[in-house]
Design goal:
Bact_HTH_transcr_reg, HTH gntR-type domain-containing protein, DNA-binding, Arc Repressor Mutant, subunit A, three-stranded antiparallel sheet, single chain, WH-like_DNA-bd_sf, two-stranded antiparallel ribbon, elongated, alpha+beta
Length: 163
Amino acid sequence: MHAQSRVRTVLHSLIDMANDRRAAIDPSADRPVYKQLADLIRADIEAGKLTPGQRLPAEGDYVEEFGISRDSVRRAMAVLRGEGLIVTELRGSRVRDAAEADVIQVTPGTQVTARMPTEPERKRLGVAEGVPILVITEPDGQTRLLPADQTIIETSGTSDQNG
């Protein structure tokens, strides 16, 4: 009987923890559900609960854990991809390793814009669906397309002509 009591106590603790986590997302709040989920995942990454290279739970796991729609999960993942915190591949999403990003130096006069890729661009660049691309146009007119979730832009020089 004593062992059953301990098992019951552990189960109740696990259920309480799951309910606490589910309560972390409030559908009646002013902040959209997908942003609340993105906030929770971001906090887990920043706290080291999710480490570089670690796979995130599947969409369905988030749906079940938080009682939210699959669309909300997808939108949260898109936010985190846009922030460069996660990478989405065919097998799911994982926490990005900072060393994975390409660092691109741009000079004054270079235009950098972000947009969603066309299907051929997405396939050519190997970009997951929902990930934007960066269009980098140099002053000489040369244009490069790069996955936004795998690129860090650094500026060099100054646009202030007076020093």
